[in-house]
Structure formats: structure tokens, C-alpha cells
Design goal:
The protein has about 350 residues and is an alpha+beta fold. Helix content is about 20%, strand content about 40%. The longest helix has 23 residues.
Length: about 350
């Protein structure tokens, strides 16, 4: 059925549609078939994988550099960096309609998304610009400290002697930076760009040799996503998280739950209709959504990582664009939001 819907939508963008007669979809109907969306909540968890490798000279960190709390044990664990929740429109199989083609009056061209959601009538919908706006931290390259070590340090007969000589070099680098920054060095850089290059190079050397004492810590972000259907006054487990294992499926009891709570905000009234499976109902115009709103929050171990009001179709209602708007005398153009099914813009001439 999905393939047929998309084909009809593409044809409707190329050729005029004559007249409109909108009804609830029944298999076998001829015409342009479109869905209204319902809201799914896309839960995005950014977790950071942290790995620590102790430095070769970690046992001398306090003696020569006065660095305390330097561990001599490797570490591998996860941290939650961010939890974000976004509304996403997906086709609602309970709200699928047919615009039948008639021969009497020119009314509309209909543009659909690839999933059969209505985008526009008599015009082009807004282009969907999907950008990955999550800034994920990646592993950084570590300099090889040995390429900055003196011959004496490299040839040292013991790790203690090596640590002493490297520590002296680190202090010398710090002194050189301070002299340059104060303008007291014998050979000062000639301009700002040269100054930056010299300082950057000195900091690179200092960092590489200091890591022989402090060790290296790598941080790499991973994005985990899942979609859930919102329900009013509900609290659902979207995913689970373990410091040792990272982000896990909701059913994996090895992690603690990440809860998503949803509460409707001033829901719009809906009209209850008598069900009639035998009789096809003529609706008289294009059906669109008026979404409601929900207060959505994400918590983990009592800490709130996300809270925001979001549009949620299921908490709203539907309305009808009357057929009289689309006639020979009136050229009406409508742009819909395919994520919610609401009207973004309507004009006529």
C-alpha cells in the first residue's frame, strides 16, 4: 500500500487534480491517498565512553610535579552527557484519507512526503532540512612524548632518573612560555601569528611529556536513539544506562532506567463519532491536524536531563478545510507541517 500512496503523491505534483471529494480510505478507492501524522517521541541519549591509561611514570607524579590523585590503574566507563527528546511525525494508520478526482472543477495539486504525509496543496511544501546538530566529541590523537625528550632522558638508567629529567624539561618549557608571554624572551616572535605558533608548539611538548606522569584520558561520544509513542499521564522506560556497559535496551535489566514522562497541557476537546465500519463517510474537505501540547521530561536516577513543552498530535484534534476553498473561482494554496499535520500557511487569490 505504501508504494501506491507514494506513486499517487508524485503524480499529483505533476498534473492538476480535478475537484475534490475527501473520504476515509477504503482499499480499492481511486484517488490521492494521504496519511495524517501522529507524534512519536524520539529520545536521543549522548553517552561518553571514557578510557584512562596510566602514564609510564605515574608513580613519580607527586614527587616531581606535585600532582596528586594520579591513578596507576586503567579505567573504562560510561557517562551520560545529554538526553534530548524531539517530536517526530509518523503516519497514523487510523487517519488515512482519499481525495477522489472529479471532472467538474479545478481544485488542487497535492504534494506528499515519501511516507504519504500531506505537505502542500496547490504549491510546494517547505524543503525538509535535516541537519545533525549534535556535536559529538571524538578521540584525540596523543603526541609521542619521546620525540620531545632529550638524549639524557632517553638514555636514563632508571625510571626515577628519567622522571627527574623529564620534569626538569617540563619546568623549562613553562619558564620559556612565561618569558615569551611577558615579552622578556631573548628571541621574541616577530608578530602575533608567529607568537601563537611558538606557544602552541611549547604547549604540545609540555602536554605530551606531562602525560607520561598523568596518563591519557580519551573521551568519545556515542548517540543512541529510540522512539516511543506518548501517552497522557505516563512514565515510560525509554532506555537503560549502565556505567560499565553504556546505553542499553529498555528490557535489559543490567542498567538503570531512563524515564520519559508525558503530561498533556490543556488538551483540545474531541468529538466522539459513532463507529460505522460498513458505511464510508464523506468528509467534505481536506482533513488536517490541530496538535495539542505535552510537557515532556527525561530523568535518570532522579536527575532531570530534559524538560520541555512539545507539540503532540494525539493530544489535539482534527479539522476540515471545506471544499468551497478549492474551486475555479478561488486558487487556495496550503502548506502543511508533515511532522504534525497542522497548517503552516494558507493564502488564496
Amino acid at each position: 500500500m505504501k508504494k501506491t500512496i507514494v506513486t499517487l503523491g508524485l503524480l499529483s505534483c505533476l498534473t492538476p487534480v480535478w475537484g475534490q471529494d475527501v473520504s476515509a480510505y477504503i482499499p480499492g478507492d481511486e484517488g490521492i491517498v494521504y496519511f495524517l501524522p501522529k507524534t512519536a517521541l524520539e529520545v536521543n541519549v549522548i553517552a561518553t565512553h571514557v578510557t584512562y591509561q596510566p602514564g609510564e611514570l605515574c608513580q613519580y607524579a607527586n614527587r616531581y610535579l606535585r600532582l596528586t590523585d594520579v591513578s596507576d590503574r586503567p579505567a573504562d566507563y560510561w557517562e551520560i552527557k545529554q538526553i534530548d527528546v524531539r517530536p517526530v511525525g509518523i503516519p497514523d494508520s487510523s487517519k488515512v484519507y482519499t481525495i477522489k478526482l472529479k471532472d467538474k472543477a479545478l481544485t488542487s495539486n497535492v504534494e506528499l512526503t515519501k511516507d504519504g504525509l500531506v505537505k502542500a496543496i496547490n504549491t510546494n511544501g517547505y524543503k525538509e532540512e535535516k541537519t545533525d546538530d549534535y556535536q559529538l566529541e571524538t578521540k584525540k590523537e596523543h603526541e609521542n612524548p619521546r620525540k620531545y625528550m632529550t638524549e639524557d632522558a632517553l638514555m636514563a638508567g632508571s625510571s626515577a632518573k628519567m622522571a627527574e629529567l623529564i620534569a626538569e624539561d617540563i619546568y623549562n618549557i613553562r619558564d620559556s612560555k612565561n618569558l615569551i608571554l611577558r615579552g622578556q624572551a631573548d628571541n621574541m616572535p616577530k608578530d602575533g601569528e608567529s607568537l601563537k605558533l611558538v606557544i602552541d608548539n611549547l604547549e604540545k611538548q609540555e602536554r605530551a611529556m606531562t602525560e607520561m606522569f598523568t596518563g591519557t584520558t580519551d573521551r568519545e561520544d556515542k548517540l543512541f536513539s529510540v522512539r516511543i509513542l506518548p501517552e497522557n499521564r505516563s512514565e515510560k522506560i525509554a532506555l537503560r544506562f549502565s556505567k560499565e556497559l553504556g546505553v542499553l535496551d529498555a528490557e535489559n535489566l543490567a542498567g538503570d532506567p531512563i524515564y520519559i514522562s508525558v503530561n498533556s497541557i490543556a488538551p483540545l476537546p474531541t468529538i466522539e463519532e459513532e463507529p460505522d465500519s460498513k458505511k464510508k463517510k464523506k468528509l467534505g474537505g481536506v482533513i488536517y491536524n490541530i496538535p495539542g501540547k505535552g510537557y515532556v521530561s527525561a530523568t535518570f536516577k532522579g536527575k532531570e536531563y530534559f524538560q520541555k513543552e512539545l507539540p503532540i498530535v494525539q493530544f489535539g484534534t482534527t479539522e476540515v478545510l471545506v471544499e468551497d476553498l478549492f474551486s475555479k473561482k478561488i486558487n487556495t494554496r496550503v502548506i502543511f507541517d508533515p511532522e504534525t499535520g497542522r497548517i503552516l500557511k494558507i493564502d488564496k487569490d
